[in-house]
Design a protein that fits this description.
Length: about 325
């Protein structure tokens, strides 16, 4: 009974009903976190050309946009803010402004959707004049420890506004312990700390940078983001964040890094989120537009791959299209 003709695997997939029975269940909508871009002001709904179906939204518009998303069972958002006009500076101080776009959006969302799980991205690159993820030192490098101090201030400002969890994405050494300490000191012991623990320097962020206007004006982020050529150090990044007190880990991007999702989730008992980034989303859109593949079927296949690799949740621009993708 070792093989053909005694074994015929096609029996396990002969009909649609049989295939359904043996299939891994689709990820539920509650596993999706929708990343959204909030802008200051009101009645603003700006199309993001490089990310079809995604918009920069003021808080009031985001409340409207969320209604059909929440109705599908999606329970969480990850907020990205933006700073407009003057005020971007060397250290990214506007990121901690209690009247910033993110800080103002949180109570508005909370009032409309009391049970929504609100995460915030904590970084400085959309708020520094130079576009790097922290203040620079005399050599032009990002000053790690000064960045940690600023990130902690930003995280506390988000917690104070009512975020359920903060998600630091700057890839600074020690940022998790610095933020946990600051949150605890300020009385935010219940605030979740979701580490972008293994975030690679990747080409897959292009459309996002277009959406956020956050590309560095000089240089790149290879000095702090993980290298796809050094997987061992990339895994250590996640394990160190666990040791520093993160509540959940993350691998970003997802689809070129399925092996990293698998590896991190086998080495840690923490939840491992996967960030299905802008480039991964927009590539499928571009291919579908050219007729190379079906949009929703390809999205579905890619999302299955992420969960098969071991992700416990996915941060994905597909979240608003859950029903179209999974047919529920
Ligand atoms: Zn950044």
């Amino acid at each position: 009974m070792n093989g053909y003709p005694d074994v015929r695997l096609r029996r396990l997939r002969r009909t649609a009903a049989i295939r359904d029975m043996f299939a891994m269940p689709p990820p539920g909508p509650e596993k999706f976190i929708w990343p959204v871009f909030v802008v200051p002001g009101a009645r603003r709904r700006e199309r993001i050309d490089s990310m079809p179906g995604q918009f920069r939204l003021s808080a009031d518009e985001l409340v409207k946009e969320l209604a059909p998303v929440v109705a599908q069972g999606v329970k969480s958002v990850l907020l990205f803010g933006q700073h407009e006009g003057d005020g971007k500076d060397e250290i990214g101080a506007p990121a901690a402004d209690p009247h910033g776009a993110v800080q103002r959006a949180i109570p508005v969302l909370r009032a409309a959707y009391p049970d929504l799980v609100i995460f915030t991205d904590v970084c400085l690159c959309a708020y520094t004049a130079h576009g790097h993820c922290g203040p620079r030192d005399g050599d032009g490098d990002v000053d790690n420890d000064a960045a940690c101090e600023m990130l902690a201030r930003v995280a506390v400002s988000h917690a104070r506004a009512g975020a359920d969890g903060v998600a630091p994405s700057a890839m600074m050494d020690g940022q998790i312990s610095a933020i946990r300490q600051a949150l605890d000191d300020e009385g935010f012991k219940k605030t979740l700390l979701v580490a972008y623990s293994t975030k690679f320097a990747s080409q897959m962020y292009g459309p996002f940078r277009d959406a956020e206007n956050s590309a560095p004006s000089q240089g790149d982020r290879q000095g702090y983001q993980a290298s796809f050529r050094d997987p061992k150090t990339a895994i250590r990044e996640s394990l160190l964040d666990e040791a520093e007190g993160a509540d959940a880990l993350m691998v970003k991007p997802a689809l070129f890094y399925l092996d990293m999702i698998r590896e991190v989730s086998s080495r840690s008992l923490l939840p491992v989120m996967a960030y299905n980034v802008s480039g991964e989303y927009s590539m499928i859109h571009a291919a579908a537009e050219k007729g190379y593949c079906d949009l929703h079927a390809t999205a579905r296949e890619s999302l299955y791959a992420i969960f098969r690799a071991g992700a416990s949740q996915v941060i994905s621009y597909w979240a608003p299209f859950y029903r179209e993708i999974f047919g529920k």
